[in-house]
Amino acid sequence: MSLLVKFNLILILCFGIALVPAQLITRNLLEQNARRQIEQQARLMLQTALATRGYTNKQIKPLLAPRLADEFLPQSVPAYSATEIFNTLRETHPEYTYKEATLNPTNPRDRVVEWEADVVNVFRNDEKRNEIINTRETPLGPSLYLARPIKITDQGCLSCHTTPELAPASVVKLYGPSGGYGWKLNEIIGAQIVSVPMAVPLKMAEQANRAMLVSLVGVFLFILVLLNVLLWFSIINPIRRLSKMADEVSTGNLEVPEVQIKSHDEVGVLAGSFNRMRISLVKALKMLEDME
Length: 292
Hints:
There is one protein chain. This protein is of the alpha+beta class. The protein folds into 2 domains: 169 residues, Beta-Lactamase, CATH 3.30.450; 86 residues, HAMP domain in histidine kinase (Helicase, Ruva Protein, domain 3, Orthogonal Bundle). The protein is 60% helix and 12% strand. It is built from 6 helices and 4 strands. Strand 2 and strand 3 form a beta hairpin. Helix 1 runs antiparallel to helix 5.
């Protein structure tokens, strides 16, 4: 096995050993960055929902107040407005969801499903907890969800949610007497849950990781070729010339020309030593011939 082949094998082995942890670290950083971006999207969605609720409560509800005595208008309910805004978004982006998941809702569409009930119960069992961030698998791929508890802190909210007898007749007429009643002050009755798809950001992270890997391999191959060229001209070729000269001298050809290497490194020193050894050998042989 030639010296150049050994050098290439050692260099490739070192690169491979260094590439494995570098690739793992890069993938981990890219995935963490993708997750942070997804969390930021989820928080932005939740802030949008809160802004919609505030707008509805401050500007829409007062305008509809004169009609609420005779007719219940769900558009006056902040939760309804926020949900409708995101339902419109879901017409083009069905993988994004917002829901005010409630254990005992007035509007049946807000009723929790199994995994949402688990989230709500976590808040009910630990009232100091104000946020949950987690992931789950969906038919459209992995999704990150951000949840915050819905807690009854306004006594006015109970005017529609104590008993059917005390609730406005228009509310009972629209939704019936079976759901949304029995709420209590300071009770956690549900959770605001936004879900953001993870497939696209994670795919982009994987593509970036793959591009980084290809770039590293490309740079390594370029450096490997460059080093091979430099090694050939600065080390391998001079050593081969010295080896050829030594072979000629060993077979008795003392007329072989000296190997001229102008460098002052170890190869140049070695070439000078070989040349002096050749000259000394020629002189020694001549002295032997004169003695004969």
